[in-house]
Input
Amino acid sequence: MGAHGPAKGLTRWLTTTNHKDIGSMYLWFSFAMFLLGGSFAMIIRAELFQPGLQIVQPEFFNQMTTMHGLVMVFGAIMPAFVGLANWMIPLMIGAPDMALPRMNNWSFWILPPTFLLLASTLFMEGGGPNFGWTFYAPLSTTYAPPSVTFFIFAVHAMGISSIMGSINIIATIVNMRAPGMTYMKMPMFVWTWLITAFLLVAVMPVLAGAVTMMLMDIHFGTSFFNAAGGGDPVLFQHVFWFFGHPEVYIIILPAFGVVSEVIPTFSRKPLFGYDSMVYATASIAFLSFIVWAHHMYTVGLPIAGELFFMYATMLIAVPTAAKVFNWITTMFKGSITLETPMLFAIAKVFLFTVGGFSGLMLAIAPADFQYHDSYFVVAHFHYTMVAGAIFALSSAVYYWLPKWTGKMYNETMGKAHFWISFLGFNLTFFPQHFVGLAGMPRRIPDYNLMFADFNMMSSIGAFIYGTSQLLFLFNIVRTITHGKPVNSDKVWDGATTLEWTVPSPAPYHTFSTPPEVK
Amino acid sequence: MYQQAKRLSKLALCPVLMLLSLLSTGAWATEGAPQRWQLNMTPGVTEVGAKIYDLHMFVFWVCVVVGILVFGVMFYSVFAYRKERHQEPATFHENTRVEIAWTIVPFLLLLVMAVPATKTLIEIYDTDDADLDVLVTGYQWKWKYEYINPNGDNVSFFSNLLTDKAEIANSEAKGSNYLIEVDEPLVLPVDKKVRFLVTANDVLHAWWVPALAVKRDAVPGFINEAWTKATETGVYRGQCAELCGRDHGFMPIVVNVVEEAEYQEWMAGKQAEAAELKALMSKEFTMDELVARGKTVYNRSCAACHGPAGEGGVGPAIAGSAIATGPTKGHLDVVVNGVPGSAMQAFGGQLNEVDLAAVVTYQRNGFGNNMGDMLQPIDIYKFKKGQ
Amino acid sequence: MATANKNVAKTTGKLLVLSVAMFAFAMWVMPPLYNALCEVLGINGKTSGRYEVVESAVDTTRTVKVQFVAQNNEMMPWEFAPNTSQVEVHPGEPAQVTFYAKNTQSRFMVSQSIPSLVPSRAAEYFHKTECFCFNNQPLEAGAEADMPLRFIVDRDLPKDIHVITLSYTIFDVTEMAAKQESLAASN
Output
């Protein structure tokens, strides 16, 4: 290796084993999926702009809600964080690349054909998956359209990609840290990814199990989820949410990691309570395995089970709150500047906490009998996943783009993107709390007139939020093609982690010799 | 930049405070249906519902107070410690006492919330000693209600969305109970404990009536229990709360809570109806019986548009029609589902299976069509399910 | 460099084993575990299999109302109803009721009735000594049957349970049964 640079042309991207290349591919892929999933959302919100069916029929609407969820979760958010992991983990621990570079390539290249397949189900006979991204049986087994088999295949493929990627991440972090970088000296982004990767390795196979059981019920005459044969639809929900709850922590922990890098940098102050941040993250991960049935409070659980899950779920608020306090205390008595990455990070802490509050309300089982499957839940998870994860991703991109490209993005455009996103996001999702409490169920294409005003607001907000992402894209592309070179390799004067010690843009190969870590 | 942000956040605070005060006044009376600009759930008309509401508001206010404290510190820091004002950042990065404190205090707050939550949950689960049992079955896409009668036949009926397809398709103005009205509401006596046995016929559904504080999943092959005791008469509306396919958004629930006397009267009427229909549903009718009954149905429901002798009028002729002399499936489709965009309504939801079998048989054999085939009520039932 | 590779291989190996183990857990441990827990803890309203009668005294101090509900699953056109919708029994006292079923179609069919009991915590105290739900019930076209259910409510039923509702959902398993038969025949 060494002296020669990357291969030329398309071959470079198809065969690369370089973590920076692969990271970039993941990021571009995830952005494309973000726009795709966002288009599905626009169709949903366009239909919900007014009462009545104007744009799509209910069958297609159900496909849109399903695909929006699947694409955003598995195509946008997860690959984006994997992209960040690929780019940044080796740089942050002083390693030359990921532990398993060729497997890294495969992990990525599984994704584009898989999502092509998933998107193509929309054009198949009977339409695409229409049973919600949570695909409960028997709607997703006995009553599913023929494309369900392709859906199952796609889920398996995505799972394999995630598992391989996570194994890679763990192997890298465990074995390739520069000498002197003990576990308790690693940046929080690396810690959160280490823990996330363990969660992934543990629960993606469970998802694979769930869809395999579905496949067997559909094609091989088994009755896992069919009462007629002695099975139980509720078993599906248990298996799915055993995956599903850790999954939402998989989505948010890397976001926590990003914020734990950005806030100290722009506060020019070390992260407050590093040790407890590590323990809190680990406790959240552990607790995430024992709360799954809070998604199933109305399914008819025995009371002892219901109480257990309620208590365990409420308990997760404690380490999560500790993290929020730590971030804020990092800012307290710091020396703060509000460049775009910091704006997104602060907004993420603020809005994710709002989502955490609605989460606490949802945890209260008796109250959840009124909230469950209403727009109150939709509001909650969009506050945590969009304002939580996607704002963190935006923050990360602005933060690290100068390192990746050696060029500074347009700060004014960045701030504009932030404020428009902030406004659009809140306009979209805050009113959803209200209609949910007023009785509007989720996953419906049409609604009673009394819900109309807030729905119209929500749709306008969605349009605003969606449009601002095009501004984001424009800023990124313009930076790459016409951006002003950064003033210094360090870019941000408050930055302290290893990636800022290499040139900006980062050379194709970095840390071929491990750095000294004191 | 900072001045802008400061102004903007003050701007945001105003409506937030307004909303918060509105929420707390409980300004919304107990209504059976959602209200315009409704911000909050209501206590409803049950004791349990009131307890749920109180729990909800308690947790909400705890969140508001914590939020104000926490975000207060955060936004204060953004302004007080910005670089222009605070050049030298502090260097502290841990404080064990503070960290222990902010672990213990939230934990204690949670304990405080857990106590009333546990009590209310135990109450919700206590389905014993009900005055009345109702079996609620979710179908794609309607509800079936069956009153369990220990002394005789159960009264049961389907409850379908009443809203016209034309309103949904925006060719007619929408009524005020758009999408939350049904042809046959569930009628319950006031001040009586009613136990619901919830199940499903096909896929998962969920029965939700906010004013009664009941939501329970309907699982095919299993029953779930729930109960309510309404303390006020009135009409209470809800919707299906579990994705169940195409018309998940179009299978509402309407509960009519009435005085005991009115309930008894209604029940007596229903029992008479039920006895009649049950006998007919699984019966195998003869051609003559079907044609005779079909003629009555035709004259009542079809003749106005299709002519008393099937000669047509506003609607096309039945005599010699391609549909009535073509495959039964196509014929059934038109009668059951109507023809969207035309005046031909969907009679599937309006006529019972016996009448549908009779009228289609009559159309296929009368007016000189002489197809020779006949349909039994069970064939109609199967056709509807097959859609 | 070589040790690093070896360590990486070790880590990778362990994680692969973990992921395979989790898949196996989901496929082969979770479903039976779910069923076992439901049965042992008597939750989920699933009543257990055949009960061997043990002589025990009858608790004459109280009665329990046992309700019977019958449901047809979609596409199951049989007539199916309890002949008695409700009985009052003493805990410990054997009782019997029958369910009426009629195959209203013009072809041979096989049914399976699936029981579900509420309140779920009563399920472990409801013992069926004989139940038509233990097996498939085949009926020729047009045939009807009165199918027996013999049961005992356990003496130890918690005193605060006064009503038990047992629901049967009848499913059409004609195809499933035919497949099983042909599998058995070919063996």
Summary: Residues 64 and 162 of chain C are 5 Å apart (CA to CA). The domain at 64-182 of chain C is CATH 2.60.370.10 (Ctag/Cox11 (Pfam 04442)). The radius of gyration of chain C is 23 Å.
